[in-house]
Amino acid sequence: MLTRREFVKKTGTIAAVSSLGLASTVCKTKNRSMLPISIQNVDSNFEREPLIRPFGFKGGYMSEIWQTMSWMQSTSGIEKVGLCTQNVLWSDAKVFGAHSEAGGNSIMYLLTERAMQIVKGQKFTSPVELLDTILEEVYNYGVQITGNPDLRKTFALNALVGLDNAAWLLYAAENGITNFDDLIPEEFKPALSHHHEKVASIPLMAYSIPISEIKEAADQGYFFMKIKIGQPGTQEEMLEKDKARLSEIHNAIGHMETEYSENGKLPYYFDANGRYEEKESLLRLLDHAKKIGAYDQIAVIEEPFPEEKEIDVSDIEIRLAADESAHTDEDALKRIEMGYSAIALKAIAKTMSMTMKIANVAKKHDVPCFCADLTVNPILVDWNKAVASRLDPFPGLGIGLLETNGHQNYKNWETMFTYHPFNGASWTQTKNGVFELNDDYYKKSGGILTESDHYMKMFNKKS
Question: Against a cut of 0.85, is the pTM above it?
Fold first, then answer.
């Protein structure tokens, strides 16, 4: 059976396609024509994955993470499953705080289910177009069921990751695309055209991670670690805790060396998750860093201030990155105009479609990007890696950056890894702090276009 793309290529006419009742319109992109895809059936499901220990950030703690699945079948009979790792605390801390942990997860899952029902019976010519079509309706539904008129858009985007991934997989299958490079729309290729041979593997050091474990990670070859700051308490208590934490970290690993940084020292990557309410507080932390000799090793500080404060940061020397405040490409541009000089991309939290748009805006303004994690499952690590491996080298390091902390936090991580279609491949493993990406990795697109038996079996009743 010919794919639609193969049929168009063989016949050379759109009229012939129309005569078969496949479509009357075609979305044309450079070097290829794409036919509308009709979504005939949908379904969703989820699994609850426990954590090794309570996972703390934004002043809160999670004990489990829901893995949701979005199943989508086209009228031609092709079916695909897209994955999503939910993170209510990251996407909207107010929703997390207003409900039980399971309650907050249930609300996000309701958004996913609602979105699946919206797209049932719809046609789309690209996943980016599909996301643009449904995002506002799904977001407004989220506002309604949370009762929060100020719901953060990342809450809706997080809920849509599985649907968006399913749409990309369906789009690829319908058009005979078997490689991620060929899947990238032409307009976004400039931002995603690099092929790194190495990508830094970034572990996460949350509040509760002992200094001894940070030292152990450095001994194992990890050289770019994400350290959570903005600890619980009042602003003054938070600052004093963070100053003490910085001192402890610098005393433990400040003398260690790496071949990847320009000064040969370990770069520091801090994530405040918007906990610093005033610029003056952050400047006091930076003054402390200067006092102890750690300032020159701070490579980036992510999301220091509350999004709603809209604090201009153009006068801060340290590179500041926008993460959750850069919900969309428009928000990313606004942050760049405020002085942010890096963007943390999250294809696994804001959808691949929106991530491509954000990366495109950053590229046009010469703002470097890297990929941050959401404590996702092993397959989604490779969805994120697909972006990280194709971004321009990060300044001062010369390679791509990819945070992945699931191995530190999931109780059943090794079992979850067996769901990966290429479990055991060398490029799924961290070696001396990096992922080594060979020709096999790029040929197989990190496995993201390959079916996972575990997740597909959860929808066998639909086959």
Answer: yes
